[in-house]
């Protein structure tokens, strides 16, 4: 089953916007496990895996039909909240923003560079690429991120901002 999990998960990617692919994968693995004792090989390789792909695809299609949902763009969701009577997100606190900027300005050069690079990338660039762009080794980059994070937490707490952050 562990060998089959990755190919099945990859086969479900196209359904990820409309169904809970993790639930479909788990149900698929359960059904393959239940069918395995009665499975009759057809002589071609990976028979159980092929059966798993068929089950996964059929389950995902059934779930898509059952849910009858259409994906909505994230921007459209913001407007929907007001129509339904939900509270709109509150604008950021200018005082908190000033404290954060002040704490970031106090960071040493290398941790500040690493943190800024990671924030600018918004998760679209790997740490190794960010490190390379800053002429750092990946491990050094990650150490600088850790240092920046710890220093920011300490600085924010010194300014009265209490965070629920685990400390290593």
Automatic annotation (TrEMBL):
Keywords: DNA-binding, DNA-directed RNA polymerase, Sigma factor, Transcription, Transcription regulation. One of its GO terms (molecular function) is DNA binding. This is RpoE DNA-directed RNA polymerase. One of its GO terms (biological process) is DNA-templated transcription initiation. GO terms for cellular component: DNA-directed RNA polymerase complex.
């Amino acid at each position: 089953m562990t060998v089959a999990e990755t190919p099945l998960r990859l086969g479900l990617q196209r359904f990820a916007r409309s169904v809970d692919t993790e639930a479909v994968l788990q149900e698929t693995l359960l059904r393959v496990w239940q069918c395995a004792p009665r499975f009759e090989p057809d002589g071609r390789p990976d028979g159980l895996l092929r059966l798993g792909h068929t089950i996964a695809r059929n389950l995902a299609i059934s779930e898509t039909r059952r849910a009858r949902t259409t994906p909505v763009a994230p921007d459209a969701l913001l407007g929907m909240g007001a129509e339904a009577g939900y509270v709109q997100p509150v604008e950021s606190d200018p005082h908190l923003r000033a404290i954060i900027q002040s704490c970031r300005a106090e960071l040493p050069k290398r941790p500040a560079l690493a943190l800024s690079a990671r924030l600018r990338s918004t998760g679209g660039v790997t740490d190794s690429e960010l490190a390379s762009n800053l002429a750092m080794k990946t491990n050094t980059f990650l150490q600088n991120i850790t240092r920046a994070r710890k220093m920011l937490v300490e600085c924010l707490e010194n300014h009265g901002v209490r965070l629920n952050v685990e400390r290593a």
